[in-house]
Design goal:
1513 residues, 7-stranded mixed sheet, 8% strand, alpha+beta
Length: 1513
């Protein structure tokens, strides 16, 4: 794709020995040679065929997919990768190939779970390049097409292959993982196997601190449903030679250093020490790695081994074998007594020999013999051969290598058996982590096998790329012929062809004991001396060079034969198979066929070739995906991009080969609109005549006379060089246009200068003419002034003379007129005085006459009045006495009233005391009376007894009958006492009567005074409550009416079908719930009148009562399960349920099933989660019912905690109490109480009610979440279309005035508005509380903000000027919606869009390069983080005006700030998370609803017709 036609001023790429490629401008063309002024300042002369065109219109931050580059060549690819690496965009596509550049720093924000959720289900190429996109594409293709997939990750050591593989497996586990009841999942075990394999298979190399020294192919198996069902790990070619040989500054395998840093008890048990004391580790000066703690890694490895199923006993055995290998390396040998024999060198060697034998659990002498001797078995005898010290060292190293290799293979097999393979799996996704192409100064057998692997994979890669090219052509339906590409089959035949290949010759040499690397090299020289891919380096005796696809590699054959041998020495096999350690013995099982042979030859090369064949068969049966890892520098440091190094890796990774394949066909592919936008200026008349993109492209290409192109369905396909030809023509047109513009500008400048000069001359002339005119005007003005002065003077003199004459005449006239006036005044005064004198005289005469008549009349009246007064006096004297008596009575009554008024309180206060005193006095008198009566009875009885005794005595002794002195005295005495007792009883009875009369009188007076006090209090209270009664008149009347209706219903007898009256409703539902199970079992029921009367049919009413309760609950549920609408803006169902529960006293029940049935009813009602109208109806009902429960239970709890206030003992307190208890005030108090508690009443709730409240709150949250998520799902598809403006053609729009797109640009935004309006109308129609509507739309707008903002950061095509204008117009529609919806429903929804608003505002700002970082961070986008600003600034490109983004100083400032926060995962994350929590509480809901709103609500009409629900009326 070199420049075919180069013109002066063109920008090209030329080769440079330092930076690979450098750009510059052509300043001179001489035939085939061109002179280029490079950007570095130097000038070079190169051939035109060696220069490549540069796309000056390429975005400064590069493109996501390099197939979109205008020029697909090496410098273009290299520059694109460097531009993206500079802005931390480490992933780039080349078609469906992902190129990953190692950043050598942690970027945790790129790999969190939120990022995986973004790539889940996204189309390949829709978001920014990422390994998750490759994994998602493979998983989706496997699910949809039913084809197994494979992902090949390649690259040289240190390029990040292992990390990329981990990311792929993490994403596949995220997509196909599932939880298990016990243990770890398959995907967790696969991920946890990485630390184990890294510990035993990774080591530090020159280019990487954690280089995998083996190939790994992970097969993740899936079932029919796409879930991970099994896995297997295949490994290839472990680098065994590293166990014994380590080059400086590399390290051995990590496990050796981990074991030396193990806990002290482990180190002591294994007799280990510092790593520098072991021969296998101290060959290199690199012992420790920066930032790596080997002791911590040891513990982590043990944990990982636990996870993958390796028991602690097996772990101990593994590390015991690893320690034995270290001790083996410290065994040194010296010459023995016999010829060519060897023995341990010293005591130190013997110690390590003994320790190794102890760790292997074998005989120490047998171990020494296996290292120092060989047993040769012949047909006749067995010969023991001693080995010299050098051979003994080789035998020791061979034992160490084979033991370590067997341990590694055992670990892999153990992991596979622990994970478990699924034989019934339908598909698999294989992830291949394989070493990349290697070319060092010294290349041995390992590099030979590694490069063979890469040759095989490159062939597979080339075939896949070729296939993709052909599929692209078929998809676009263009005419194409077979495209030839470079095939490396000849290199593969050179290496693995059988017979005659290098591996075959190597195996043949290994089977001959006397073969050496020199004889092997000579055999190669003779066999392949004419092969174009094989050569012999100069001055080399045993080296050979192979021309690989990535370049020439020279191999040294010194250790080829030893490293290719894979058989086990018979002595080593016998020794370790006889070990007392079952683990060691299991590593070396003794096979029957090997028992009689010394050894069985096995070739590593042949075995590796078979593994490659198996691997390629597996890959061929799958659909491949490729990830090419690139190491930007050899220093392993961030922000360093070495062009030469990267370019070499691109060549080794086959990327350049893929580009060559693309160049062989149609390397340049442009969408029709992009092609017209770029080259429309070549034939503008074509665009004026047609609005069809395809026809426009065809006519344009025909107009310019281009041949060999193809027109596809969506793209224009150009041959190599045609893009440069079109750009050259475009540059020529732009040059001519520039000349025209320059000519027009020069003409404009000249015309502008002429106009300025002409205007200046006119201004000078105008000034001169003005000056002359001013002089003439001044003279004329002076002449006119002189004339005006003369005129004014003459006028002054004439006016002065006139005024003197005028004043004289006026003075004469005024004197004459004054004299006449004074005469008239004098005559008037005289006339007035005479009249006044006459009037006074007449008045005096009349007054005198009046006084005389008045005096006479008064005298007459006084005489008459005296007469009448005397007569009246006599009457008054008669009534004087009566008047004095009445006045005294009046005063006395007033005093009595005042005394009563003041003593009213005292009398009222004494009433209680008097009542108590009277009660006590009555009790005392009663007891005294009873006592006296008792004494009287006793005395009477004793008297009768004495009389009877006396009679008997008299009858018995008749002789002394006449001597009665003693008896008479006794009788008299008794009679006297009897009389006294009678008088005492009569006095007591009299006192009791008097006391009772006083008590009755006092009671009567108290009652009268109480009535007076109550009347006074009634008047006072009526006066105080007059205003309140007026305000509550309506409520009281309604409450009284309701009470009257209830009383009438309760008093009206309702007969059952059997003719008996039903029990009282209050009694039948005393606890508001069905009888408990215990009551039913015991047969006890609440007492009824029927039971109290002892009727025999009391069981039947009880059973009918329970059935009736069930029927009532069923009737309630059957009614409210239907949509029964709303009353005065409140849900009827919730109101009805609450009234029923309140009437049934279910809240106070200890046990009830009413709440359970209501919960089941609500759960079944919301099973259909797609009907927002139905969900909104139940959200309104549940939230309202929850509010009513919250108010009742809250008030009930408060009422139970407060003590009843004590009864006041004051006068007015008792007056108020008596007033409230009076019959007239009781009705008013009951009416007021019933009105206040008509809807919500406090209750003493029990546990079932509290549990029902919690369940109801959970349902409110659930329904709220369902409605919110339904709206989010509805908007999700529209949001993906709203983030990017519809694609239009600039040329077509500018010329024809209409777009190629059919849809209006804001159609998708209108769809969002319609969805919001539809839900808002639904919620309003169902009277959902505004607080819930606010929260729904606030969270929805937050979701819109997250989706739009994340898409903006993940898709580069969205960070454009035109797209910012498009999104801004859509956000304006959302703002208008918020205004129209009002704050009552929209709330703070608009504020939730702050991230996307600020980001879009930044995109549409002009002259961004003039803005500083402080202005961006503090003024324009204060809410955005540094990472978010950096990503927007680096992704931005102006597709409308081609303006620049922010300056490089701003980018550098952001990069410094990000580097400081690079270790903080939270601060590094630039994507937003969606909040799916419940943003409200029950208290928020309670504060938004007013209790008074329920005063007018009516219950369900259906239940009001049911007599059992008469309480709802």
């Amino acid at each position: 794709m070199a420049c075919s036609t180069t013109t002066i001023g063109a920008f090209v790429w030329v080769e440079d020995p330092e930076v690979a490629w450098i750009d510059g401008e052509v300043i001179e063309v001489k035939g085939e040679d061109i002179k280029v002024q490079c950007t570095s300042g130097k000038t070079v002369v190169v051939k035109a065929s060696k220069a490549y065109p540069k796309d000056v219109e390429a975005p400064p931050s590069g493109v996501d997919d390099m197939t979109r580059l205008a020029y697909l060549h090496e410098p273009g690819v290299l520059q694109n990768l460097k531009a993206r690496y500079d802005i931390n965009e480490i992933y780039t596509y080349t078609g469906n190939i992902l190129i990953a550049v190692n950043p050598f720093r942690k970027l945790p924000h790129l790999y969190n779970s939120h990022m995986m959720a973004q790539y889940k289900g996204a189309a390949f190429g829709e978001l920014s390049p990422h390994p998750f996109a490759v994994a998602d594409a493979s998983y989706r293709q496997m699910i949809h097409e039913g084809i197994s997939q494979s992902i090949l990750v390649s690259g040289e050591s240190g390029a990040g292959k292992t990390e990329s593989t981990k990311l792929l497996m993490r994403y596949l586990a995220y997509m196909g993982g599932r939880a298990v009841s016990e243990g770890r999942t398959v995907e967790q075990q696969v991920l946890e196997s990485n630390p184990v394999l890294e510990a035993f298979g990774n080591a530090k190399t020159v280019r990487n601190n954690n280089s995998s020294r083996f190939g790994k192919f992970v097969e993740i198996q899936f079932d029919q449903g796409g879930r991970i069902s099994g896995a297997a790990i295949r490994t290839y070619l472990l680098e065994r030679s590293r166990v014994c040989q380590v080059s400086d500054p590399e390290r051995n395998y990590h496990c050796f250093y981990m074991l030396c840093a193990a806990p002290p008890e482990e180190v002591k048990k294994l007799k280990l020490a510092d790593p520098r004391t072991f021969h296998y580790l101290n060959q290199s000066n690199c012992i420790e790695l920066d930032g790596l703690d080997d002791s911590k890694e040891y513990l982590e490895t043990r944990k990982a081994m636990d996870v993958v199923g390796i028991s602690s006993e097996e772990q101990d055995a593994i590390f015991r074998v690893v320690a034995a290998i270290l001790h083996l390396g410290n065994i040194e040998f010296t010459k023995g007594k016999e010829t060519d024999s060897s023995v341990p060198k010293d005591e130190k060697s013997k110690f390590h020999l003994k320790t190794a034998a102890e760790l292997f659990m074998c005989d120490e002498k047998a171990l020494e013999d296996s290292l120092c001797k060989r047993v040769i078995v012949t047909r006749d005898e067995t010969i023991t051969k001693c080995l010299d010290p050098d051979s003994a060292v080789l035998s020791r190293d061979a034992l160490a290598k084979i033991v370590y290799s067997r341990v590694f293979d055992w670990i892999v097999d153990k992991i596979n058996s622990s994970i478990g393979q699924d034989p019934d799996s339908k598909y698999l996704i294989g992830v291949l982590d394989i070493y990349g192409f290697e070319s060092f100064k010294t290349n041995s057998f390992e590099q030979f096998c590694i490069n063979l692997t890469n040759e095989k994979l490159q062939q597979h890669f080339n075939q896949h790329v070729f296939k993709m090219e052909q599929e692209e052509y078929k998809k676009e339906e263009i005419d194409w012929s077979y495209i030839e590409f470079v095939d490396n089959q000849d290199v593969l035949d050179l290496i693995e062809k059988k017979p005659g290949g290098i591996i075959a010759l190597l195996d043949e040499a290994c089977m001959f004991p006397r073969s050496t690397h020199e004889t092997f090299a000579q055999k190669l020289y003779q066999t392949f001396k004419n092969h174009k891919r094989f050569s012999k380096p100069k001055l080399a005796r045993s080296d050979f060079t192979i021309d690989h696809y990535a370049g020439d590699v020279t191999y040294q054959t010194e250790q080829f034969l030893d490293k290719n041998k894979d058989y086990v020495v018979a002595e080593h096999q016998a020794l370790l198979s006889a070990s007392r350690c079952t683990f060691v013995a299991g590593l070396f099982p003794l096979l029957a066929e090997d028992s009689n042979k010394q050894s069985k030859f096995s070739s590593i090369g042949s075995r590796f070739k078979q593994q490659l064949v198996s691997l390629l068969e597996t890959l061929s049966s799958t659909e491949p995906h490729y990830i090419r890892c690139v190491k930007p520098n050899n220093l392993l440091k961030p922000s360093i991009f070495e062009n030469q190094n990267v370019l070499q890796q691109l060549r080794c990774g086959g990327v350049m080969e893929a580009i060559r394949i693309s160049c062989a066909g149609y390397p340049t592919r442009k969408h029709f609109d992009e092609f017209l936008d770029r080259f429309g200026i070549l034939a503008p008349e074509v665009l004026d005549k047609s609005s069809d993109e395809i026809a426009g492209c065809k006519k344009l290409l025909e107009q310019v006379g281009l041949q060999g192109y193809q027109i596809g369905k969506t793209k224009v396909f150009l041959r190599a060089g045609q893009m440069a030809d079109l750009d050259a023509r475009r540059t020529e047109v732009l040059g001519r246009s520039a000349s025209i513009i320059q000519r027009k500008v020069r003409s404009y400048l000249s015309r502008k200068s002429f106009i300025m000069l002409r205007k200046a001359a006119s201004n000078i002339q105008a000034v001169c003419r003005g000056q002359l005119a001013r002089h003439i005007f001044e003279s004329l003005r002076k002449e006119a002034a002189a004339l005006r002065i003369q005129k004014a003077l003459r006028m002054h003199l004439a006016r002065k003379s006139y005024k003197e004459i005028y004043f004289a005449a006026v003075s004469v006239q005024s004197g004459m007129r004054g004299m006449v006036a004074r005469d008239k005044l004098r005559s008037r005064r005289q006339t007035k005085a005479a009249i006044k004198i006459q009037s006074h005289c007449r008045r005096f005469l009349a007054q005198s006459r009046y006084k005389r008549l008045k005096k006479a009349a008064i005298v007459t009246q006084c005489a008459w009045r005296v007469r009448l007064a005397r007569k009246e006096l006599r009457k008054l004297k008669m009534a004087a006495r009566e008047t004095g008596a009445l006045q005294a009575a009046k005063n006395k009554l007033e005093k009595q009233v005042e005394e009563l008024t003041w003593r009213l309180q005292l009398e009222k206060r004494m009433r209680t005391d008097m009542e108590e005193a009277k009660t006590q006095e009555n009790a005392k008198l009663q007891s005294a009376l009873e006592e006296m009566q008792t004494q009287f009875k006793e005395t009477k009885v004793s008297l009768l007894k004495e009389l009877e005794a006396a009679k008997k005595a008299a009858e018995v002794s008749p002789v002394v009958q006449e001597v009665t002195v003693v008896d008479q005295e006794l009788v008299k005495k008794l009679t006297t006492e009897n009389e006294e007792l009678k008088s005492l009883v009569s006095s007591l009875e009299q006192k009791i009567d008097e006391t009772e009369k006083k008590f009755e009188e006092t009671s009567r007076i108290s009652v009268e005074r109480q009535k007076q006090a109550l009347e006074a209090e009634t008047k006072i209270v009526n006066l105080k409550t007059a205003m309140h009664k007026l305000e509550e008149k309506i409520l009281d009347m309604e409450s009284e009416n309701q009470i009257l209706r209830q009383q009438s219903l309760l008093s009206a007898p309702i007969k059952t079908s059997s003719g008996h009256l039903p029990p009282s409703p209050v009694k039948s539902l005393e606890n508001g719930h069905h009888p408990s199970e215990e009551n039913r079992l015991d047969g006890t029921e609440p007492a009824t009148p029927a039971r109290r009367q002892g009727t025999e049919s009391d069981a039947k009413p009880r059973r009918s009562h329970i059935d009736r309760q069930h029927e009532d609950v069923d009737a309630l549920i059957n009614c409210v399960i239907k949509d029964i609408g709303f009353s005065h803006g409140k849900p009827v169902a919730a109101f009805t349920i609450y009234k029923c529960l309140l009437h049934w006293k279910s809240f106070e029940a200890e046990r009830t099933n009413v709440f359970d049935r209501l919960v089941q009813m609500i759960g079944s009602a919301i099973e259909n989660e797609d009907d927002n109208a139905h969900l909104a109806y139940w959200l309104s009902n549940t939230s309202t019912l929850l509010f009513m429960l919250q108010q009742s239970l809250k008030a009930g709890a408060t009422a139970t905690t407060h003590r009843k206030p004590p009864i006041s003992t004051s006068l007015f307190g008792r007056m108020a109490l008596g007033f409230r208890s009076s019959p007239s005030s009781a009705n008013l108090a009951a009416a007021a109480a019933s009105a206040a508690a008509a809807v919500i009443r406090p209750v003493d709730a029990k546990y079932p009610a509290l549990l029902f409240k919690q369940q109801l709150a959970a349902y409110v949250e659930k329904i709220y979440g369902i409605i919110r998520d339904n709206l989010k799902r509805e908007l999700q598809t529209l949001l993906s279309l709203c983030i990017q403006a519809p694609r239009t053609s600039k040329g077509s729009v500018l010329r024809s005035g209409r777009s190629f797109g059919k849809d209006s640009p804001l159609n998708h935004w209108q769809g969002i508005i319609e969805g919001l309006n539809a839900l808002l109308n639904t919620l309003q129609e169902n009277f959902v509380p505004p607080v819930l509507i606010q929260k729904i739309f606030t969270q929805t707008f937050s979701y819109i903000n997250v989706q739009l903002f994340n898409s903006l950061l993940l898709r580069r095509e969205c960070c454009t000027f035109s797209n910012g204008e498009y999104v801004k117009s859509g956000l304006a529609e959302l703002e208008l919606w918020c205004v129209q919806a009002k704050e009552e429903y929209a709330g703070s929804s608009w504020d939730e869009l702050k991230h996307i608003r600020q980001a879009v505002g930044f995109l549409v700002i002009h002259q961004k390069y003039r803005i500083s970082y402080d202005e961006i961070a503090n003024d324009l986008c204060p809410i955005l983080s540094v990472q978010q600003l950096y990503r927007i600034c680096t992704l931005y490109w102006d597709d409308s005006y081609n303006t620049r983004s922010v300056s490089q100083d701003v980018i550098s400032s952001m990069r410094v700030l990000m580097t400081e926060d690079s270790n903080n995962a939270d601060s590094s994350a630039f994507l937003l998370d969606d909040d799916s929590s419940i943003p409200f509480s029950v208290d928020d809901l309670s504060s938004a609803i007013q209790e008074k709103d329920f005063a007018e609500v009516k219950a369900a009409d259906e239940l009001q017709e049911n007599p059992a629900f008469s309480f709802l009326l």
